[in-house]
Design a protein that fits this description.
It comes from Paenibacillus larvae subsp. larvae. The protein has 299 residues and is of the alpha/beta class. The chain is 26% helix and 27% strand. It has one domain: Purple Acid Phosphatase, chain A, domain 2 (4-Layer Sandwich), CATH 3.60.21. The strands form 3 sheets. It has a 7-stranded mixed beta sheet with strand order 4-5-6-7-11-8-12, with helices on one face. A 6-stranded mixed beta sheet has the order 3-2-1-13-14-15, with helices on one face. The radius of gyration is 20 Å and the shape is globular.
Length: 299
């Protein structure tokens, strides 16, 4: 999952989460969604899935069924997965390793569950939110180094449990207390999560609150559900967009050197959200005749 590190060529990818099915019929909901998504966005280079791939990670037949459906609709596409809470049932997180070929550049005790890669002009970081608070804390030093070392224009981070939740029946997750402050301090552009089975997008966030007009904020997106399950949602003050209909959704993200354009559609093809992330241009000192002469002479 790595392109030429110097590349700034535009690209797009699909984001889904929580396919979380038991049966072939339920997994086909996800397959149909992929079919529609690739018909509308045929240039999408890969699928990023933020976890709860299956309903019960202890059941090998569910993993096999998912892989069968995935290959039927996207055999020529890369798949970028991460662990969700349902995936780690039983020995599910070890089955996960055998199912997918993933980078081995994360922390030693989180190999293939935590990793990063470059694609185009973006740096992607994948975290594991499923081993408890202490394991999450252990990822923070690696995360800080990973984010500070990239020279890519855009930083995109993905994990399963939403830091800014939409489900009113859940308690605040540890990702908000442990991971979100690091992401916002590092100027990460976009966070892709799941877990809550309802589509939602925050305002740009900084320091745990809505960013000021002159501040650069981090946008968090909860990818909704492409499968059979939907959960209640609440319009918390940090949300700029929320979609409560019990309908399968997916996200297409296009990354260029100028901006990130995100389009979110439901299974009927209807646009339910779209937004654009840009970068403020650095101030360029006004050129004088003297500096122009120096540039002309190659000085």
């Amino acid at each position: 999952m790595q392109t030429d590190y110097r590349s700034t060529k535009p690209f797009s990818f699909l984001f889904t989460t929580d396919s979380q099915a038991n049966t072939e019929e339920e997994f086909q909901l996800y397959g149909k969604l992929l079919q529609d998504a690739f018909a509308r966005y045929p240039d999408s280079q890969f699928i990023l899935h933020s976890g709860d791939i299956v309903e019960d990670g202890a059941k090998l037949e569910q993993w096999d069924t998912f892989k069968h459906v995935l290959s039927a609709y996207s055999a020529d596409k890369k798949f970028v997965p991460m662990l969700g809470n349902h995936d780690v049932f039983g020995d599910g997180k070890y089955t996960f390793r055998t199912m997918f070929e993933l980078p081995k550049n994360g922390p030693e005790d989180e190999t293939e569950w935590v990793y990063s890669f470059d694609y185009g002009d973006a740096h992607f970081t994948v975290l594991n939110s499923e081993d408890g608070k202490e394991a999450l804390k252990k990822q923070t030093e690696w995360l800080k180094k990973d984010l500070s070392s990239t020279k890519k224009r855009w930083k995109i981070v993905a994990f399963h449990r939403a830091a800014y939740q939409s489900n009113p029946t859940r308690e605040e997750d540890a990702t908000k207390r442990i991971i979100a402050p690091i992401l916002e301090a590092a100027g990460v552009d976009l966070i892709l999560t799941g877990h809550d089975h309802a589509y939602a997008r925050t305002f740009p966030m900084k320091g745990g609150a809505k960013a000021g007009e002159q501040e650069k904020g981090t946008v968090y997106l909860i990818g909704g559900s492409p499968g059979p399950k939907f959960y209640p949602e609440r319009p918390y003050e940090y949300f700029e967009a929320l979609y409560g209909e019990d309908t399968q959704v997916y996200t297409n993200t296009r990354v260029t050197s100028k901006n990130i354009k995100v389009e979110v559609r439901n299974i009927r093809g209807e646009m339910i959200d779209t937004f654009l992330l840009g970068k403020k241009k650095k101030h360029q000192p006004e050129k004088t005749k003297e500096t122009e002469a120096h540039e002309k002479n190659g000085e």
